[in-house]
Amino acid sequence: MYIGRFVVVGPELAAYRVSSRSFPNRQVVARDDQLTVTPTPDAPESDNPYISYNCVRPADGGQSAVVGNGSHVDPIAEKLDLGYPARDALAESLLALDYEKDDYDTPRVAGVVAGRTAGEGSEAGERDRSAYIGTVRKDALLVREVSEPTLVATYELDTPTDFDFDAATATAAADDAYELDFEHAVCAAGVRVGDDGVETAIRNGD
Ligand SMILES: NC(=O)c1ncn([C@@H]2O[C@H](COP(=O)(O)O)[C@@H](O)[C@H]2O)c1NC=O
């Protein structure tokens, strides 16, 4: 089955995979503390505005991280930095940018994971393990908190659905997402938020 791009979001952990029929010559690269999807040097030139973007960004001083399939990742992270609740940062940014105006009305998908011990104003030692997933499609805006790994994709599986995903590290998340049995895997990224901050990992094609 071809489901396009997808995120899996669970407590403290998230994964993002690019699957692509049309633009397979792409990779994930690390730039400072964020991960970016970009064409490989041998990729044919394209003016498609949706194929290069930050797919993982730490936010809120390393207390949380954002994953997603397009330019909405940036405003979500920036709103978290400003102190917005994850639900609001997702909903506002997804709605503002809306689905992609391409031949497929491709949805935007995204997730926010938190994992660090909460800071000022919270009980000592209290851990924030909240996770949120969201998508904006032509017919819907869906944002919800999740307590178990949950997947949403651009095509077919385009409503957040519980998903069996037991990776425990960023590296395992990237590898497991890449290896999932959905067609046209191109590259993947994983992120884990723990007490030591945000850990990221990249899995590019073989
Ligand atoms: N985020 C991405 O990596 C991405 N890759 C392709 N798209 C969009 O989706 C359309 C279909 O791509 P494909 O045939 O590879 O599934 C492309 O024309 C492009 O507008 C993307 N946009 C959203 O997923």
Taken as a percent bin, the fraction of beta residues is: 35-45%
Structural class by secondary-structure content: alpha+beta
Order of helices and strands: EEEEEEHHEEEEEHEE
Task: Tell me the count of domains.
Answer: 1
Rounded mean pLDDT is 95
Q: Choose one word for the global shape.
A: globular
**Side-by-side strand order of the widest sheet:** 3-4-5-6-7-8-9
| C-alpha end-to-end distance | 20 Å
Number of helical regions: 3
- What is the correct CATH architecture? 4-Layer Sandwich
CATH superfamily: Inosine monophosphate cyclohydrolase-like
Largest sheet: 7 strands, antiparallel
Structure at a glance:
The chain is an alpha+beta fold and 206 residues long.
Explain this structure.
The chain is α+β, with helices and mostly antiparallel strands. It has a single domain (6-204), classed as Glutamine Phosphoribosylpyrophosphate, subunit 1, domain 1. It has helices at 73-81, 86-97, 170-179; strands at residues 6-10, 13-19, 26-31, 34-39, 53-59, 64-68, 108-114, 131-137, 140-146, 150-153, 161-162, 185-194, 197-204. It has a seven-stranded antiparallel β-sheet with strand order 3-4-5-6-7-8-9. It has a six-stranded antiparallel β-sheet with strand order 11-10-1-2-12-13. β10 (150-153) and β11 form a beta hairpin. α1 runs antiparallel to α2 (86-97). The two termini are 20 Å apart. The model has no long low-confidence stretch (mean pLDDT 95). Residues 4-5, 18, 20-23, 37, 48, 50-51, 69-70, 100, 102, 104, 106, 154 line the site of the ligand NC(=O)c1ncn([C@@H]2O[C@H](COP(=O)(O)O)[C@@H](O)[C@H]2O)c1NC=O.
